Amino acid sequence: MPSAVLTPTKDKAVDAALEPAVPVPNSEYLTRYQTHQSLISILHSTLTEPVLAQVVGLTTSQAVWDCLRQNFSQQSLANATHLKFQLLSITKGTKPMSEYLALAKSLSDQLAAIRAPVSSDDLVSYVIRRLGLDYAMLITAIMQFPPITQFY
């Protein structure tokens, strides 16, 4: 007995046995497939062997990214916490001012690199808070100025 289906645009039965589905090739499939393979190759070439072992066998670039994100998100969180603690703990002490500011900037840049940026206002606040009494007048002067937009 031939099977009949109703088409959504017409209210008549169509004999499915007479009109077999004809596959329509997706003209963009090959291009997308090659792009994914290129991305996977690029990702693989930039990974160290222990990290590469975690993504071997994944077939899409999205799967590789998801695996990397999942594996490193906790490490990034721990690293961000550690860097923030370092930033809050540094003091000028006997270091030259240029070295002290470079250290603060380096910690801030590292936080920004792992997507945990410190605002310029907060960075200035952290830096001047740990300068010490020798810089009390400078701190007072800095506090009188409007907030700066970037810390260089």
UniProtKB/TrEMBL annotation:
Pfam families linked to this entry: Retrotran_gag_2 (PF14223)
Protein name (Swiss-Prot/TrEMBL): PREDICTED: UBN2_3 domain-containing
